[in-house]
Design brief:
Helix 4 packs across helix 8. The chain folds into 2 domains: about 100 residues, RNA polymerase sigma factor, region 2, helix turn helix motif (Rna Polymerase Sigma Factor, Chain: A), CATH 1.10.1740; about 80 residues, Arc Repressor Mutant, subunit A (Orthogonal Bundle). It is globular, with a radius of gyration of 19 Å. The longest helix has about 35 residues. It contains 10 helices and no strands. It is mainly alpha-helical. The chain is about 80% helix and about 0% strand.
Length: about 190
């Protein structure tokens, strides 16, 4: 039933019924945020990515032809928008490097402050463990566990081969297990 409602909303938006788009936003906004956040790292940037991605989705929804699942098409747009934002952030960071050198002799103090924080709940603990993963590893974990995407859907979203997704996911789970088991003191 949910897939039928989604398909109907997509068709309505494609036919010019803009208010029908609100259902799509409500349905996918949270997971889109969780896809963007590991890539761009900052909460505000992830919110901006999600907003930009939904604008793109609305503008180009007429190009969605139903060959793939709508959610895969949508997440691919979110993924690519986040990659673009991360690239722009890196470029800005390089431009600002000289300015930041004036204020900080080294970043050791900032890293130390982060490591000294004590978190009170499991969600924060796991969040810190996820921060130790590379962006592509965090994306895989987010899509597979939070987004409940299949390997085939992840491959479609990321444009990686399914075999690469399986291997990377297996290695990421092993890496995360080691981080959680051996690094509890470092994370808290």
């Amino acid at each position: 039933m949910d897939d039928q409602k989604l398909q109907k909303c997509v068709e309505e938006v494609q036919n010019g019924n803009a208010p029908a788009f609100s259902y799509i936003v409500e349905k996918y906004q949270s997971l889109a945020f969780h896809i963007a956040l590991p890539i761009v790292k900052k909460h505000e940037d992830a919110e901006e990515v999600v907003q930009d991605a939904f604008v793109k989705i609305y503008r180009f929804i007429h190009q969605y032809n139903g060959e793939s699942r709508f959610s895969s098409w949508l997440y691919k747009i979110v993924f690519n928008t986040a990659l673009t934002k991360a690239k722009l952030n890196r470029q800005q960071l390089l431009r600002n490097e000289e300015v930041s050198k004036q204020y900080f002799d080294n970043n050791a103090e900032l890293v130390h402050l982060k490591d000294d924080l004590e978190f009170q709940n499991l969600r924060q603990y796991i969040g810190l463990a996820l921060d130790r993963l590379r962006p592509d590893e965090r994306l895989l974990v987010t899509l597979f566990y939070l987004g409940e995407k299949s390997i085939a859907e992840i491959a479609e979203i990321t444009t990686w081969k399914a075999s690469k997704c399986k291997v990377k996911l297996m290695r990421t789970r092993q890496k995360l297990k080691v981080i959680l088991a051996n690094r509890k003191d470092d994370l808290l």
